[in-house]
Amino acid sequence: MGYFQWVLLLFAAAAVNFFFGVRSLRRFLSSMGGIESTMQLKRFKDMVRVQMYQALLQMVLLGGMSVVSVIGIVTNGISGGEFYMVLVLNGAVWLAGKLARGTEEKARNLKISAELKGEYLSVCRSWLSRPFPDF
């Protein structure tokens, strides 16, 4: 299998991971208008935990795609039309990330009861700044 085929395979795996992640996030948001109980906060934490692990997997897939792309371009294993296709795929990755950002922001700005707000904000901070869940 050549470099370009590896790029396509890694991109396809990243696309599947992305769509499952966004779908689960949207499902969560459609079923949860706000967080007013510890049970709802637990569901939020479970969803965030999965999102964080999917983000790590996404970094591995897209990082691998980038490394294979660079090696392929440098060694002339990717040339001509394949090079432009790699650029298009990278543009698609960037655009998908931009489009999904709003959905994540909605999840980090839910209506929350006063007694759960501190823990909710802590989970949101962890989601944004840590590679692994610490809650």
Please, could you describe this protein's structure?
The chain is mostly helical. It has one domain. The protein is 79% helix and 3% strand. A two-stranded parallel ribbon has the order 1-2. Helix 1 runs antiparallel to helix 2, helix 1 (3-31) packs parallel to helix 3 (81-107) and helix 2 (38-74) runs parallel beside helix 4 (117-129). The longest helix is centred in the middle third of the chain and has 37 residues, at 38-74. It is elongated. The termini are far apart. 17% of the residues are buried.
Through-space gap between termini:
42 Å
Low-confidence stretches: none
**Structure classification:** mainly alpha
Q: What is the helix content?
A: over 70%
The shape, in one word, is elongated
What series of H and E elements makes up the topology? HEHHEH
Report strand order across the widest sheet.
1-2
Total domain modules = 1
Number of helices: 4
* Alpha-carbon Rg, integer: 18 Å
Q: Mean pLDDT score, rounded?
A: 95
**Largest beta-sheet characterization:** 2 strands, parallel
Total strand count, please?
Answer: 2
Strand content: under 5%
Task: Give the arrangement of secondary structure elements.
Blueprint: H1 3-31, E1 34-35, H2 38-74, H3 81-107, E2 111-112, H4 117-129
Helix pairs in contact: 1-2, 1-3, 2-4
Task: Tell me briefly what this model is.
The chain is an all-alpha fold. The chain has 4 helices and 2 strands, in the order αβααβα. It has one domain.
